[in-house]
Amino acid sequence: MRKLLAYPLSVIYLIFFGATLLVFHPLQWLAFNLFGYSAHKKIVAIMNLCLLRCSHLLGTTYSFKNVENLPTDKPLIIVPNHQSLHDISPIIWFMRKHHPKFVSKKELGRGIPSVSYNLRHGGSVLIDRKDSKQAIAEIGKLGKYIEKYNRSAVIFPEGTRSRDGRPKEFKTNGLRILIKRAPSALLVPVSINNSWKMLRYGKFPYGIGNRLTFDVHAPITTNPDPEQAMAVVEKVVVSGITEFK
């Protein structure tokens, strides 16, 4: 019965989701080209709030804990586990004061209204996972950027999303580069639960009635031992993942 109800709700959700992306694409262009970074950032934040509201049509609710305790006068490297694309909008909206920028695969940089534009122009970097030299250069560029402007980088060290919520082993090369290029940054572990349930039936229909939780843990300094800091981050993130098959 629950899956049957998910079909019509998913259709309604996709209509509103797609309409939101189409509406905000020209708004982003206008903000970026006429008013600059600050205006564009506000438009992107509002767009992601609207995307969260769209997901309420699926009965989705959110809990984002402890973000208010993060400093705004230091660069941050935000390190969450990855369960679905539904991890993205909550991070952008609830952590908007920290200007989150993403390490994303290059395929997302084209063809998706609003999303691709923001990734190309909003400060995020697009990496080719088949070209390690290009990926290293782009991630390094992001590290320098957040160090200079006291902003935040978001990297998912698992590499790909977990389909059942179970954490995957961290791949730390990208994280290591960010730490090197942003030596004053704090590592911020984030444990995400239940986002995978949005895709529990596959790509369609969406899962309904889920409460997605984002637990922001205490920041960790990378000095004097970045390797130990990365090990601690992984342990903290995994300790907060409790909902999986």
Automatic annotation (TrEMBL):
Transmembrane segments: 12-31
SUPFAM superfamilies registered for this protein in UniProt: Glycerol-3-phosphate (1)-acyltransferase (SSF69593)
Pathway the protein contributes to: Lipid metabolism
Taxonomic classification: Bacteria, Pseudomonadati, Bacteroidota, Flavobacteriia, Flavobacteriales
InterPro entries: Plipid/glycerol_acylTrfase (IPR002123)
GO biological-process terms attached to the record: phosphatidic acid biosynthetic process
Ranges in coiled-coil conformation: none
Annotated source species: Aggregatimonas sangjinii
Entries under SMART domains matching the protein: PlsC
Official protein name in the record: 1-acyl-sn-glycerol-3-phosphate acyltransferase
Residue stretches making up the Phospholipid/glycerol acyltransferase domain: 76-195
One Pfam family of this chain: Acyltransferase
UniProtKB keywords: Acyltransferase, Lipid biosynthesis, Lipid metabolism, Membrane, Transferase, Transmembrane, Transmembrane helix
Entries under CDD domains matching the protein: LPLAT_AGPAT-like (cd07989)
Molecular functions (GO terms): 1-acylglycerol-3-phosphate O-acyltransferase activity
